[in-house]
Amino acid sequence: MKGRKSAPVEAERPAKRCPPPPSWLPQHAKKEWKRAAKELHGRKLLADDVLATLESYCVAVGQVRECEELMATEGRIIKSDTGPKPHPAFRMQQAAMREGRLLAAELGLTPHRRGMKGGENEDDNGGWDSDLLS
């Protein structure tokens, strides 16, 4: 069974101007919004129906960075009654990374989705998009 390769489709009604990040987004998420929204807008892929997905993507990227900052100050291993264990933020970071990767692929923000294969053999994954395999 082969996967279907899809290319980003130009939005029917792309935004006239690149929208600013929502005020409720955390700082790291706002920074990613500014980067990703600019790219999507430039490729005429940013329309009203994409904004919620972009918000979710930016929240996930922000969570990854927040977890990393927390573990940088508190350490990746914490002490508990049963002995050392991974910091709870580690699991949250892994989940946010996974979600962010999937949303980035859906938005066309990965190199593979933009058509930049980098010499990759297309049949390595049996026709499935490598950025969607977990």
Strands, total number? 2
Biggest sheet descriptor = 2 strands, antiparallel
Question: Helicity, in percent?
Answer: 40-55%
Category from helices, strands and their pairing: mainly alpha
Shape: elongated
| Poorly predicted tracts of residues | 119-123
β-sheet strand percentage: 5-15%
Strand order in the largest sheet: 1-2
Tally the helices. Answer: 3
Radius of gyration based on Cα positions: 18 Å
Overall pLDDT = 84
Reading the helices and strands in chain order gives: HHEEH
Q: What gap, in angstroms, lies between the N and C termini?
A: 17 Å
Keywords:
45% helix, mainly alpha, 3 helices, two-stranded antiparallel ribbon, 2 strands, 134 residues
Topology:
Elements: H1 27-42, H2 51-74, E1 77-80, E2 83-86, H3 88-107
Antiparallel strand pairs: 1-2
